[in-house]
Design brief:
The protein is α/β, with parallel strands linked by helices. Helix content is about 55%, strand content about 10%. The radius of gyration is 36 Å and the shape is elongated. The chain starts with a helix and ends with a helix. About 10% of the residues have low confidence.
């Protein structure tokens, strides 16, 4: 059982991993029309998981058979042997006193299979957890910064300072006084506990040790080594670093650099050259193969903005403050420096608007500027920025550089390390580091590099002249910003009273988790019964009823048998009649065997049907989630959805059938006890009815409370999953800020909230037990007195007295067990209720009224006819009255300020958002009439946020396995990835890490370009597709697009105007409306045009 349980958990982990990946990349999957592929992959894993659970069910059937057969078999053998061996006959006093003892085995033996299952689960889970406890941790190099705080150290500090109640949320954390850290070795076990040390290090010696708390560097050695002068912020000496602990292949090597303090250092280089790796090495996120990193002891507080902006599920303001105290003057300066005020004005609740798990209600540029604002607001000494300008358009990017980095940050005498592909900003850098092939190719000031490498400088100069805008912003551009802000102010001022009410409601993007009230509806039970299949449900109930009947008949047979023995004794005859004895033993044996067979059939049918029902429910949930519109994922945290696939699915898989099994057995046993007592002494009904009324009120009171507690238990788990998932996504940022204490507090607070609910659940169970024991004792008293009086006064047979008393003794325990089972069943049905809630999620209109020809679209002609688009019916439109015609084979460039609706226009082509007015026609066919998957499979896109999935490179390029290797290599060559993939061990079959973490963001975008090429569509959409690519690669790709996609309609959304200068037509958007649409030449001739203002500085 343990081995099978390990397999079940392994498949469950794999399923959850794939489900998480599916949810994280849902937007991309819908754009590509790949939902079915990933759905099938999850269903295959689920199929194997259920297969293993069925095997486990076989063991449980065998265990249940043993536990149910044991009491009756022991009873049968005992009475048969006694009757055959003993000279005295079997009498009621012997039979029913023995039967009462034998029946004490029933409930313990019934609980045995569950106990075994729980024990096996516990053993397997502890083994799996141990792997995490002894896993490698990030290094602690004593580099001059505060040491990362372990959980044990944090709890020790807080408890020592009586800070037990200091688990506060992110809004209150700003008030927490953080204790300064000491540079000392922090261990998880006492220093003299060598055995435990070996356990934690996996048996490694100190020289082989790795992890945050394994380093042996002494404080004195460190202080002597850290002798950086005040004009040096940090230094790397002879550094070689790897991403993989187990595979020490250097990602970057021979790194020797000195970062000047209070200056701007710019790191440049081609895609995949190691720029981001250098930053990760500085932050201690890589494995050190050789060398060392030293920070200046006096100024070593770090702020970090990752290449892919990481935001919390909190308000925009809280994301910027990031636990720091609120300073209004500083906050306003940061908002201005990051050009966020116009964007805040758009948001319904201003800076108090809650943004989603990954800032999903913000555009890519807005997310990045919030991340930048977080860096600027924090009063740190060093600001590390990993290519934040890539996601910003030209105006905002220039504003952030001049007002934010060069203005606000540098004026505070802070050190800035900036990775960027935008070479026009080289002139502002005090030091430039050029990366190539994982090594430093050149470093120094711009003048020094110009002197040492005139060719490189010449290439830079040419690129700057040809492909970037000047840093000077023309007056017309200033007017554009003013116009846009006036329009935004006008939009806010025009909100009606009703709109204000909606605005107030709309400030929270993530809705509160749904919670049903009152008892679980009968519809939920019916839904579960339908999942099992109603005929099977009736069969199971019939089998359990028959089994209880067989047991009752067995006891009546025993009563008659013992009564015959009593009559023999009374008549003074003690001899055994072998024929008579054979009759009684044979009848008892037959009824016992019938009881056992019916029990096996009941258990088998229930376990198998329940697991198959769980499989059907999971498929229904998965299909509903996959078919849901994108707005559902914008407003529902991934952690909440994962809770359905993990905790709720686990309850449906493993717990409900056990509870229902126990419930049915208990109900029929109580019914049998009441019937037997009523048949023996009819007056019993008069006494038991009031008791049952009292019992009913107790159980009603208990179930109402426990039901709500169970719902709270389920609901309070979701924030734990959500926060943990969110924290994992931003670990490098959290560790860079040395903010792990605060995030650990929030996590512990949420776990405590869940634990408090669970503690109350246990407490109400104890409350119930005390009261039910009292009720049960009264029932025994009534039955016992009644039968005794009836026996004395009414001549009731002693055997029937014994039978009634034995059932009375059981009824107390069964009543207690019944209410627990009813409560547990209703609690666990809450999991079905929660899953069923998501199975009724509105789905996208996948079916179409018109099936287009196989070659459609054959030319790529696109028409927008008075199109207005919104993300949800209750929200304002993001595109208004768009009417435009893109001719077949035309190259269209779309530009506009961040948030102007550029990406929304492309999403409308995929019907990913609601086109509530007008129509979009491609090659004469209205896309609203086309089946959704057909539409999305016929259009290619290179998305704004590149996503790679775990699996092979081949799977990421061609998951349907329709292309030849030669076609895959051709696509990689076009995307400039052929050299990179060729160097990998397994090439096309090389593994891609989860989220593509083993490739840079730029490389991920290139993989998306290769996917688009393989699709061979007549329409290609490039949604800021070259944002994270260096200028040189970008120039090559523009040439590739012009040649490889020469007959394709290419719609390019760009923030770099240079990337769309060769387009046939330019579309300029502002506030969701078209403000300009013409050829680049005509727009440039009009000096007052917005597009002309964007390129006026080009030389």
């Amino acid at each position: 059982m343990s081995t099978i349980q390990k397999h079940v958990l392994k498949f469950s982990d794999n399923r959850l991993k794939k489900s998480n990946e599916l949810l994280q990349g849902m937007k991309l999957l819908k754009l590509y029309g790949w939902e079915e592929i990933f759905c099938s992959a999850i269903e295959q894993v689920r199929k194997r998981e259920v297969k293993k659970m069925l095997k486990l069910g076989g063991f449980l059937i065998a265990t249940n058979f043993i536990t149910q057969a044991t009491p009756v078999t022991v009873t049968l053998i005992s009475f048969a042997v006694y009757s055959l061996v003993s000279p005295l006959p079997l009498t009621p006093e012997l039979a029913f006193s023995s039967l009462a003892l034998f029946q004490q085995l029933i409930i313990p033996l019934y609980l045995l299979p569950m106990t075994i299952a729980f024990t096996v689960n516990a053993i397997v889970s502890v083994g799996r957890l141990q792997k995490f406890f002894v896993a490698p941790e990030i290094e602690e190099n004593h580099d001059g910064r505060d040491v990362l705080c372990s959980a044990e150290q944090q709890f020790r500090d807080e408890y020592d300072d009586d800070e037990d109640d200091d688990f506060v949320d992110s809004k209150e954390d700003a008030k927490v006084q953080k204790k300064p850290f000491k540079y000392e070795k922090v261990t998880l076990v006492p220093a003299d506990d060598e055995d435990d040390d070996k356990l934690l290090t996996g048996g490694r010696t100190s020289k082989e040790a790795y992890g945050t708390f394994d380093q042996e560097t002494s404080l004195g050695d460190f202080e002597r080594a850290n002798t950086l002068s005040d004009n040096v912020a940090l230094m790397i000496k002879n550094g070689s670093y790897s991403w993989d602990v187990d595979n020490p292949v250097a990602a970057i090597s021979d790194i020797n650099l000195t970062i000047p303090a209070e200056k701007l250092t710019l790191i440049v280089g081609l895609v995949g050259s190691g720029k981001s790796s250098v930053l990760s090495a500085m932050l201690g996120e890589m494995t050190t193969l050789s060398g060392s990193i030293l920070f200046n002891k006096k100024k070593n507080k770090v702020a970090y903005a990752s290449q892919k902006a990481w935001l919390q599920n909190a308000t925009l303001k809280d994301n910027i403050l990031f636990g720091e105290p609120f300073n209004k003057k500083r906050y306003n300066k940061v908002i201005e420096a990051c050009a966020l005020q116009p964007d805040i004005d758009i948001l319904p609740g201003g800076d108090k608007t809650e943004i989603g798990e990954k800032g999903i209600n913000l555009s890519g540029g807005q997310k990045q500027r919030v991340s930048l604002a977080r860096c600027m607001y924090g009063q740190t000494d060093i600001v590390i920025l990993d290519d934040p300008l890539a996601a910003l358009d030209v105006h905002v990017g220039r504003h952030v550089i001049h007002e934010g980095i060069l203005g606000f940050v540098m004026k505070e005498n802070r050190t800035v390390i900036l990775v960027s592909h935008q070479l026009q900003y080289l002139q502002y850098a005090n030091q430039i580091i050029v990366m190539d092939g994982g090594k430093i190719y050149r470093q120094g000031s711009l003048d020094e590099i110009a002197n040492h490498d005139p060719e490189l400088y010449g290439n830079w100069k040419e690129t700057i002249v040809l492909q970037t805008e000047s840093e000077k912003e023309s007056e017309t551009e200033e007017e554009l910003t003013i116009i846009e802000r006036k329009e935004l102010i006008k939009q806010v001022s025009m909100i009606s009273e009703e709109g204000k009410k909606q605005e107030k409601v709309g400030t929270t993007l993530i809705e509160e988790e749904e919670r049903e009230r009152g008892s679980v509806s009968w519809k939920i039970y019916l839904a579960y019964a339908k999942a099992i299949k109603l005929p099977i449900v009736f069969t199971i109930i019939t089998l359990w009823a028959s089994q209880t009947t067989a047991l009752t008949l067995t006891n009546f047979w025993l009563s008659a048998w013992s009564e015959s023995g009593a009559n023999v004794t009374i008549n003074g005859t003690v001899q055994n009649d072998s024929d008579d004895l054979g009759y009684w033993i044979g009848g008892y044996t037959g009824l016992t065997i019938a009881y056992i067979i019916l029990g096996v059939l009941g258990n088998s049918s229930q376990i198998i049907s329940a697991l198959l029902a769980a499989k059907r429910i999971h498929i229904s949930l998965l299909r509903s989630i996959i078919d849901a519109p994108m707005r559902f994922f914008d407003t529902t945290p991934v952690g909440r959805i994962l809770n359905r696939f993990s905790n709720d699915t686990m309850i449906i898989d493993q717990k409900i059938w056990q509870t229902v099994n126990g419930l049915l057995i208990t109900i029929f046993q109580i019914a049998a006890a009441v019937i037997v007592n009523s048949l023996v002494i009819p007056i019993f009904i008069a006494f038991v009815v009031p008791v049952l009324v009292i019992y009913y009120f107790i159980q009603s009171y208990f179930i109402t409370t426990s039901r709500e507690l169970q719902r709270l238990d389920s609901i309070t788990k979701s924030p734990v999953f959500a926060h943990f998932s969110e924290t994992l996504g931003g670990l490098s940022t959290i560790r860079a800020y040395r903010d792990e204490r605060r995030f650990r507090r929030v996590l512990i607070e949420r776990i405590d909230t869940n634990n408090i609910v669970f503690l109350f659940l246990l407490s109400v169970n104890r409350w119930l037990a005390v009261r039910l024991d009292l009720v049960g004792a009264f029932i025994v008293l009534v039955s016992g007195l009644g039968t005794l009086i009836a026996s004395i006064l009414g001549g009731l047979q002693p055997s029937l007295v014994g039978l009634a008393l034995s059932y009375s003794l059981q009824i107390a325990g069964y009543l207690n067990w019944l209410i627990r089972q009813v409560a547990d069943c209703e609690m666990q049905m809450n999991a079905v209720e929660r899953v069923k809630h998501y199975t009724h999620t509105p789905s996208e209109p996948y079916r179409g009224n018109q099936k287009p020809p196989l070659a459609w679209p054959d030319s790529g002609d696109v028409r927008f006819n008075d199109v207005s688009v919104r993300y949800a019916a209750e929200l304002e439109p993001v595109l208004r009255d768009i009417t435009v015609h893109f001719k077949a084979g035309e190259k269209i460039g779309i530009c506009g300020r961040t948030g102007s609706g550029k990406s929304s226009l492309t999403l409308a082509l995929f019907r990913l958002i609601d086109t509530y007015k007008g129509s979009i026609v491609i090659d004469g066919i209205d896309i609203s009439q086309v089946p959704l998957l057909t539409l999305r499979n016929r259009i290619a896109i290179i998305p704004q946020d590149p996503v790679l999935f775990s699996g092979t490179i081949r799977f990421n390029l061609d998951p349907l396995e329709e292309k030849l290797d030669s076609q895959l290599w051709e696509a990689l060559e076009i995307a400039q990835l052929k050299p990179t993939v060729s160097e990998l061990d397994n090439q096309l079959d090389a593994e891609v890490a989860e989220n593509g973490e083993n490739f840079s963001v730029g490389q991920r975008q290139l993989f998306c370009l290769a996917r688009a090429f393989l699709r061979n569509a007549r329409i290609l959409i490039m949604d800021e597709a070259t944002a994270s690519i260096d200028m040189q690669t970008d120039a090559i790709l523009q040439t590739v697009v012009a040649t490889s996609f020469n007959s394709v309609t290419v719609i390019t959304v760009a923030h770099r105007v240079a990337t769309i200068m060769d387009s046939d037509t330019i579309l300029v958007l502002s506030d969701g409306k078209i403000v300009e649409y013409d050829t680049p030449a005509n727009l440039l001739q009009d000096e007052d045009s917005i597009f002309s203002s964007l390129v006026k500085g080009m030389k």
